[in-house]
Please model this.
Amino acid sequence: MVRADAPAALDGRDLAPLWWEAASDSPERLAERPSAAFRKRFLYGEASGGVTYDQMLGKGIFPVYRSVRQGRYKLIHESKHDRYQLFDLESDPLEQVDVSREHPEVAKALTDRMRRRYEDSAGVAERAESGSSHRVELDAEEIERLRALGYVP
Model:
């Protein structure tokens, strides 16, 4: 995103053209004019809010915050209090004003989309506590790779 040349040994593809519509765009303008490729696409996010996954699973919370964004709107679900908030990122980029009452159709559509996306994870805590066979076993190398990325202590 800084328009620097990538090392020759780097394996991958440059995704910057997806973000910037024209070669003259700068990183500073990214927030002002994201690529058309991302205007209609659903973008999902998760955050623990500083709570570890072990703490969440023990309380039946997985994860604390989830979000879905499409175009100018972003819906955030806080699972601890089962609260949904809708933000208009064009008029409120700092996500301070919940506009779900002003745009109930957008809030409902994004809520439905989020629920469909995450219905697979319903009951994760219950399955983990019951010793369900859905548990994934990791070898020492996999655990170390996750630790290097900061996912496990």
